[in-house]
Amino acid sequence: MTVLQIDIETYSSIDLIKSGVYRYVEAADFEILLFAYAYDDEPVTVIDLTAFEDLPDFILHDLTDPGVIKTAFNAAFERTCIAKHYGIVCDPVQWRCTSVHSLSLGLPGNLGSTATVLNLVAQKDTKGKALIKYFSVPCKPTKVNGQRERNYPHHDPEKWEDYKSYCVQDVVVERAVRKKLERFPVPEKEWRLWALDQRINDRGVRLNRAFVENAIACGAQCKERMIEEAKELTGLDNPNSDAQLKVWLSENGLEADSLAKEFMDILLDAAPSEETRRALELRQEMGKTSNSKYDAMARTICADDRVRGILQFCGANRTWRWAGRIVQMHNLPQNHLKDLELARETLLNGEFDFLEMLFGAPPFVMSQLVRTALIPSDGCRFIVSDFAAIEARVIAWLADELWVLDVFQGHGKIYEATAARMFGIAFESIVKGHENYRFRAPGKVATLACGFGGGRAALEKMDKGKEIPEDQYEGLVKQWRQANPNIRKLWYRAEDAAMEAVRMKSTVKLAHGVQYRYEAGTLFADLPSGHSLAYPQAAIKLDTKFDKDGLTFFAQDDRNQWSQQRTWGGTLVENLVQAIARDCLAESLMRLDKAGYVIPLHVHDEVVLDVPWENDVLVDDVTSIMSRPIDWAPGLPLKAAGFETDFYMKD
């Protein structure tokens, strides 16, 4: 099949990074400046649309021809821009994304880094960033250009020629990357899933614009009041400054190396006076990150009140899970307000003081309400459905921890069953009102914290309600491991299999269709669903911390640097479990789409459906689709639960 490689350069007054491509193309001044393309191995051609050059008719035809595969690095950008500029439908079924292909192999998601890591002859032009800033975004007025808001080619013809060369070079590099990766193709099933993902992102999810605007106004009013209180309390010019507040705290008897949120509880406990405690509380309330999501919503919302492009396919490339983008929906707090609907209506009506009187500090309240800004389309309600304890089910299935599988095939009360097994008490006694109910909390925390080799630190992190005395953490770890011997064995079996595959450059089977395979310097974890996780540049190296050989591979670190990383069996199993759970969600998305459901959003292991009120579909119909057995995972007991709602929320 013919492949058409494409790269474009564009202009818009909307910030692409902050607002996303869908809002970007809605700007009245959006336009494509340059359109570079190449068929298969042919030379690259660039069309300068600013010079009134027209895209050839055969290109316009091929953009919608299903017999021609269109490809780009981050194809979602090219698809969306081309569709807007030319007023055509760019069917994602006809496209392939080289960035997704790169991510699927554990490589970076940006073109320059990928080309560098692959050590290609063709490399991205380093002038690009400056040229994009000059021609593709608004410029600040200067003494030279007066009120000029953007630079055109005639303002610097030499730079414009460089920009055209840069666009051509991007096609050259993208093609070189694509050809390099062809040895390890993305399965066609995954490309079909990506096409569905693109349609979900194209559709987007509706926001209540008035709700978002009121949330921002309420936050601004509250923050201004808190800053004034903090100024009066501390005497500081800027009490929101870490440096100034640390000095003030030190002068008032509290040394604070860091004011990061993970240290705030410790500092509050150590506060020597009511004044220092209140200063810290104000700092904590002013730093509520969830409220910044309202700003992201306001920047991203499209003319039809929908927010789009907030899911990235294979964004978490170690597991192929989706990642959140722009409006980050993957790290929201639970909603625990007693009357969520009343709080929501109060904010929507602009009754900010009444909201605080009823529910407490506005930053806390608004962080609880973020989800509720998302609403169904007109004439619809949301059906929200998610998998029950999906990771606990997958790891038990993968490890053949039969007693856990029996629980999930029966009553499903894994926290109570775990507690009964850990503490040697009757399962039936772990009910509210009985003294043994106190064991449910450690059973739950241990189940959530220990499955991937977590120890004391994992328990402490997962024990958010501080229901367990700290001196019991280490004992609970041992009890959980004794209760789940096959899961514990799986960590070491996975590590041994992966290391043997690397050491022997071979394929080693693990369990239930999972195998480790070493090929061309990369360790692959082949999954039963048909795709593979990748660990580039895998090697066996001495781990001086434990004085034994360990498994290493290369990946981008927190600073986006390509660096060597270590892993072990617990983390390998975590990758497998999360990847298989992702594949279960993928199966459900495809099934729900085939059944005619409209999917505006999914988050982690949860789907959100837009269902017309006149459609008498019941929640049970949706959960039954998600609970249906999967061919490639025989014996995996899936179960979903759901509910209907007029706005997005956690049940």
UniProtKB/TrEMBL annotation:
This enzyme's EC code(s): 2.7.7.7
Domain DNA-directed DNA polymerase family A palm: 367-615
Keywords: DNA replication
Superkingdom of the source species: Bacteria
Catalytic activity: DNA(n) + a 2'-deoxyribonucleoside 5'-triphosphate = DNA(n+1) + diphosphate
GO biological process, one term: DNA-templated DNA replication
InterPro entries: DNA-dir_DNA_pol_A_palm_dom (IPR001098), DNA/RNA_pol_sf (IPR043502), DNA_polymerase_A (IPR002298), RNaseH-like_sf (IPR012337)
Protein name: DNA-directed DNA polymerase
